[in-house]
């Protein structure tokens, strides 16, 4: 099996799939939420679109409460989870080409979600497709778990794991994979500092159990700004 050749053959389909997924404006819209589309029509449409690609490829597909779903290949007890998401944050300003179209420039595809997380999601899906089409039998299962609310609080994963099996192992190819390979939730943090004589810029803070002497002393070990 020549995987590189197989990937090259899949390239144009991968790019057209990515553009199609980018073209779905999958931004959270709670004002338009329904029981079937708890995060609004955009995220639901993107989820449905991807699950349809899974059905088309002959994979096992399940939609979970309009919030999430999965696409699976293989047989067996073991389960590997690949965690992805199809929702995106609002487009914002400053785009050179429309954010919800997917334009190619200099060998790159530009659009909201091209990196986070529609690109990695489509890449993972096509990798699974290549394995399936190779005919190599799998004695474990590989499951692409797709969320529709990663950007706004992970309610998709909360809902998914209320009823679905937890994989024994997994990874999350989100945005700059493989640097980003795992996610355990989302945190909105506000850093503040009381005015005072020693008040300097907030530069770093140590992780618990390491250096606890305050800004400056934990540099290189905590998070630096
Ligand atoms: Zn992401």
From TrEMBL:
Keyword Ribosomal protein belongs to the record: no
Transmembrane parts of this sequence: none
SUPFAM superfamilies linked to this entry: Zn-dependent exopeptidases (SSF53187)
PROSITE patterns, sorted: ARGE_DAPE_CPG2_2
Top-level taxonomic group: Bacteria
Gene Ontology molecular function, alphabetical: acetylornithine deacetylase activity; dipeptidase activity; metallopeptidase activity; zinc ion binding
Keywords: Dipeptidase, Hydrolase, Metalloprotease, Protease, Zinc
Protein name, as recorded: Putative dipeptidase
One GO process term, biological-process aspect: proteolysis
Family the UniProt entry places it in: Belongs to the peptidase M20A family.
Cofactor: Zn(2+)
Annotated signal sequence range: none
Region entry Disordered, spans: 206-225
The species this protein was found in: Bhargavaea cecembensis DSE10
């Amino acid at each position: 099996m020549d995987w590189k050749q197989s990937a090259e053959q899949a390239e144009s389909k991968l790019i057209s799939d990515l553009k199609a997924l980018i073209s779905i404006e999958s931004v959270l819209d709670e004002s338009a939420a329904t029981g079937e589309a708890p995060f609004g029509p955009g995220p639901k449409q993107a989820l449905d679109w991807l699950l349809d690609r899974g059905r088309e490829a002959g994979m096992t597909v399940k939609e979970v409460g309009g919030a999430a779903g999965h696409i699976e290949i293989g047989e067996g007890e073991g389960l590997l989870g690949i965690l992805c998401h199809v929702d995106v944050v609002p487009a914002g300003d400053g785009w050179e080409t429309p954010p919800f179209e997917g334009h190619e420039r200099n060998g790159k595809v530009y659009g909201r979600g091209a990196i986070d997380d529609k690109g990695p999601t489509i890449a993972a899906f096509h990798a699974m497709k290549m394995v399936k089409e190779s005919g190599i039998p799998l004695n474990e299962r590989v499951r692409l778990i797709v969320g529709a609310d990663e950007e706004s609080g992970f309610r998709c994963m909360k809902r998914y794991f209320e009823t679905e099996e937890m994989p024994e192992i997994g990874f999350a190819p989100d945005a700059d994979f493989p640097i980003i390979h795992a996610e355990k939730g989302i945190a909105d943090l506000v850093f503040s500092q009381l005015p005072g004589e020693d008040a300097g810029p907030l530069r770093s803070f140590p992780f618990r159990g390491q250096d606890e002497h305050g800004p400056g002393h934990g540099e290189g070990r905590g998070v630096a700004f």
